Amino acid sequence: MKINLLTDFTGHNDVLRGEFIAPAYQGKWMSLLVAGSSAAYLCSHWLQNKQNIPGPLRLPIVGSLPFIMGDLREVMTEMNKKYGDIFIIYVGSESIVVLNGLDTIKEALIQNEKLFDGRSQKQFQELTFNLGVASSQGDLWQEQRRFVLQTLRNFGFGRRGMEDYISEEAIFLKKAVSSIDSNSPCDLYSILIKCTCNVICAVVKGQRFDYNDPQYTEYMNLSKEFLSLIGINNPVFVFQLLKYIPGDLFGYKKAISISKDLRKLYKQWIDEHRNRLDNGEEPIDLIGVYLREMKKCKEENQYFFDDQLVQVIMDLFLAGTDTTANTLTFAIMYLIIHPDIQNKIQDEIDHVIGSHRKPTLKDRFNMPYTQAVINEVQRITDIAPLAIPHATTEDVLFRGYTISKGTTVIINLHSVLWDEHQFPEPSNFKPERFLDEKGNFSPCEAAIPFSLGKRACLAESMAKAELFLLFVHLLQNFHFKLPPNHPELDFKGIIGLTVQPKPFTVFVESRQ
Ligand code: HEM
């Protein structure tokens, strides 16, 4: 997942050239120049934002940056209250329109989907080359998204095939968790992330890794470091000029270097697959199917090429690994502090599945309470609170405002998932929100953690299958408790590309 509340800071040329002014007058001139340039900026702000979209003040150079410091979920909530469901912020020189609330978001992403389904082509250019699925747009994006979706469907994607992949990995997860000493607190997250990454490995390269394989650990560490460097918490993504400062204070160069290493590794995987196909093997994974497609339409299809495949692989790993692992980790955290809810799920599992049969996706229909808990976890943890920024594909007249072509548009999913009219007392964990009076699972229109419309998460069905199967496997076999004297759990997490749980440890007891 990428949250790029970023800008390519172009830097305006109103540098104050104090050295050309006699020292005696310097202070006065400086003040005049500062005041003048500020006024010019405010004027230009007014002129540029002639559609009068409300929003915080735009200051010289930094735009609205001083007003959007801190936890973006809280900042956006305050601005939503103050300015309404559409507001505009400036990050450096770039204008960003923020859409809030279910009705506004539906109107943009469903009623006007073609106008809002672009992606900004500036901020991550150096990392993604605007290729792949998540960062591309137009025909290239449509073609790749269609192909990847189709391929995932052919592997199962909610049907038997994908279910088998996930269930197989769940057995390895169970083994890894079983090997933990019940008297030692364990870092469950580090196991879950290897598990969810293996599901993507199976789909992409038809192979899983042993959790103790040092190469796999090295790969996980590399991706983890990469994710930590490319979040909005890295100022270089806000002020791109900072990347020209000698040294690597903010880790930007490191991020580029890791992305090169990852690309090299993916290229190696592609070459291995190409050799196998050349030796007459049938494709069994996404890379194989993609290479076959490339061969099939070598001449006439401009959208299938090696670099594009490399970026598709990177997108699937980046978007598909920590989203699910983070959600599962938060789920366990909520169950630790709500032992009654943990017991209720385990009663449902014991009743519907028993202690020995493998959980299947069909069980979902008989497990309303577990379904309600998973939906509530996804709502409250709000793993991708600002989705991936969209961009307008044309000049758009939207709710009386003109938004020009190419403007970055943030879809504030947090404003929906934590809307107190939709979900009273949104900060309270209440699975009952998703149950009717008879105890049946009752989905809610405003529960949109995967976003809406044509850009919505490409792997929603797969992610839901993973969450259900892995969660149920865990709770069928284990009971989770907070170790004595453990500091209070932090449910806000760390907001970067996604919301990450802060490190914590847990006691795991076997239920078998
Ligand atoms: C709990 C799990 C997940 C959640 C909550 C989630 C949520 C999201 C959200 C909010 C977006 C942005 C939608 C937008 O821009 O409006 C997205 C995009 C995307 N997700 Fe997921 N996701 C999850 C798991 C996955 C998995 C497992 C995969 C891959 C196998 C995946 C692949 C993608 C891709 C490729 C995109 C970009 C789609 C595009 O730009 O067309 N996601 N996801």
Automatic annotation (TrEMBL):
<dbReference type="InterPro" id="IPR001128">
    <property type="entry name" value="Cyt_P450"/>
</dbReference>
<keyword id="KW-0479">Metal-binding</keyword>
<dbReference type="GO" id="GO:0008395">
    <property type="term" value="F:steroid hydroxylase activity"/>
</dbReference>
<keyword id="KW-0503">Monooxygenase</keyword>
<keyword id="KW-0560">Oxidoreductase</keyword>
<dbReference type="GO" id="GO:0016712">
    <property type="term" value="F:oxidoreductase activity, acting on paired donors, with incorporation or reduction of molecular oxygen, reduced flavin or flavoprotein as one donor, and incorporation of one atom of oxygen"/>
</dbReference>
<dbReference type="GO" id="GO:0020037">
    <property type="term" value="F:heme binding"/>
</dbReference>
<dbReference type="GO" id="GO:0016020">
    <property type="term" value="C:membrane"/>
</dbReference>
<dbReference type="InterPro" id="IPR002401">
    <property type="entry name" value="Cyt_P450_E_grp-I"/>
</dbReference>
<dbReference type="GO" id="GO:0006082">
    <property type="term" value="P:organic acid metabolic process"/>
</dbReference>
<dbReference type="InterPro" id="IPR017972">
    <property type="entry name" value="Cyt_P450_CS"/>
</dbReference>
<dbReference type="GO" id="GO:0006805">
    <property type="term" value="P:xenobiotic metabolic process"/>
</dbReference>
<dbReference type="Pfam" id="PF00067">
    <property type="entry name" value="p450"/>
</dbReference>
<dbReference type="InterPro" id="IPR050182">
    <property type="entry name" value="Cytochrome_P450_fam2"/>
</dbReference>
<dbReference type="InterPro" id="IPR036396">
    <property type="entry name" value="Cyt_P450_sf"/>
</dbReference>
<protein>
    <recommendedName>
        <fullName>Cytochrome P450</fullName>
    </recommendedName>
</protein>
<keyword id="KW-0472">Membrane</keyword>
<feature type="binding site" description="axial binding residue">
    <location>
        <position position="457"/>
    </location>
    <ligand>
        <name>heme</name>
    </ligand>
</feature>
<comment type="similarity">
    <text>Belongs to the cytochrome P450 family.</text>
</comment>
<dbReference type="GO" id="GO:0005737">
    <property type="term" value="C:cytoplasm"/>
</dbReference>
<keyword id="KW-0349">Heme</keyword>
<dbReference type="GO" id="GO:0005506">
    <property type="term" value="F:iron ion binding"/>
</dbReference>
<keyword id="KW-0408">Iron</keyword>
